[in-house]
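Instructor's aside before we start: the two examples that follow are unrelated to each other. I chose them only because their records fit on one page, so don't look for a connection. First example below.
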Amino acid sequence: MSFDLSGKVALVTGAGGGIGQAIAIDLAAIGAKVAVNYLSNREGAEETIRMIKEQGGEAIMFQADVTDIDQIEALAAEVQEKLGTIDILVNNAGHLVERRKIEDMTMDLWRKIIDVNLTSAAFMSKAVIPGMKEKGSGTIINLSSVAAHDGGGPGAVPYATTKGAIITFTKGLAKELAPSGIRVNSLSPGFVDQTKFHATFNTEEGRKATVAKIPLGRGGVPKDISGAVLYLTSPYASFITGETIEINGGMFMK
């Protein structure tokens, strides 16, 4: 069985680089019209659009802060107006923000981390659900992390907490939306090279130590994650909902 996403509209949040960029490019490669969302990395989003168009795909860039409810609603409305009803939502936007121990945590920083990693996924989903219900189908994919299982690295308690919550949110929303023909799943990446996250919050020594613990002997790359997104949007995954796929080279095994 082969498949393509011609006629489908996909919105990928945080698609200005790394994992989000790879997801947007690969969805466009099999026919989806892609809405490339970014917060501040306009140059990265433009690069995503350029690469999509180079391979003959269709994409439009949309700037929005997905922690702001007004901007979320405006984003969903603008995508629908310019591309059509959203069939696929990938809640990729997320950020560790800052490493800080709980004893030094402020309420403002805590809320910022919760909002960018969890609240954004909840309310972005809320914004696209009505259109999906009207069509009787849809796919929502959330991004969790191996931190959901191991508690994260030093100073990452709030980040790990949000990623654990994403898994539970995915299960609950999957149950809620299944009668409407909408599937909801999540992906839980481990260490992924070629991303701003690890370039910012890791050292080369830390990278080598982490890779040494991975049974497959290498760090992940963004394409490892985008491949799983393609699977979850395909007919092969039509009976899968509420699941979390671990993508970590064996670093964490259930």
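Example two begins here.
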Amino acid sequence: MQIHNNTLIAECSTYDFKEMLERKKVKSWLKSVSAFANTDGGSLFYGMNDDGVIVGLENPQADADFISETIKARLDPVPEVQLIPIEHEGHSLLEVKVKAGMLTPYYYYQDGTRTAYVRVGNESVECNSQQLLSLVLKGTHMTWDSLPTQVDASKHSFIILANTFREQTHQEWNDKYLESFGLITSDGKLTNAGLLFVDNCTVFQSRIFCTRWTGLYKDDAISSVEHRDNLVLLLKYGMDFIKNYTMSG
């Protein structure tokens, strides 16, 4: 945050200034939290007037506690929020930093009514029907395999995937493909999909069961094998099993 002469840059699509915390009119600021989460993220700065001039807060800790509890009680789903205390020339401020959400739409809930907001310029406005539909589609496009994990990609290798890529495409492998394939995030974390493709896959459910029966009925198995590995090898094991027991000629 850049402050010059006790003044912050004017309100914009990602900034909202609040001179004080409105405890009896929570909608006045919760709609901004909803809007930031539904759009590109942003921050509310408490202790600054509409002109961006610092006035400070008397009790930022109490305000932070109230904000945290109110967000959890009135927004669904609960967005990812950071509460950041700021001290500037004897003034206490509070930044409520809202991350752009992936589980859109984020609704403000009151008296049985759910309302979603988005940022338009420097305002938080109620979604129209088209905007709400777009948010719903954005939220439902999220799949399990695209979810990030807390596992560092640097601690794992994708040698088997890279070698298979070269064999199948006759092109050179580039580690940049990992992010474009959705296997790692931009900040170097594995996604759930990435966990299934690393060389030393430890996902318990990443298994394949191959069984050969005597006929059309599952009575006595002639042979059965179980493999637990990454998806590339599981595909190979499954294909090899079928080829080994497929009659030709």
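The chain has a mean pLDDT of 90.
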